[in-house]
Task: structure prediction
Amino acid sequence: MMCLTAAVEAKLYQTSPTQVNHDALNKIANDLIAMYKENEFTRESIQQVLAKLLRNINPLNPGAKVLERIVSEILGKDDFKTFIFKHSDNLSLFLTMRGVYMERFQGSLKEFDNVYRFEVVSGEKSY
Result:
């Protein structure tokens, strides 16, 4: 966890201010997603590292792919509402990723718009 956090903090996945090493980015994202699934005690830290990673990269290609994977592999595209209310860690991850989406990725993930625009309190899609 500490090594992945250091890699994100140092932006080791970037080859220049506008270019990303996709292999390095995918390795970091894969490891963070796997750790989130396997280790409940690190989930809050992992979500913060994922948020930092997403805030540091281009929202179009690599960033959108990481957000898609979080929905597909952790939140569950079709059953995310059930998932996020099972445990406070899940809700916290959802709210953090939703915040990143609204801040940097809004409109770039049409397929997942229903997920990232879901309002927890009202239970409806926000606009």
Remarks:
- The radius of gyration is 14 Å.
- The chain has a mean pLDDT of 84.
- Residues 2-7+21-116 form one domain.
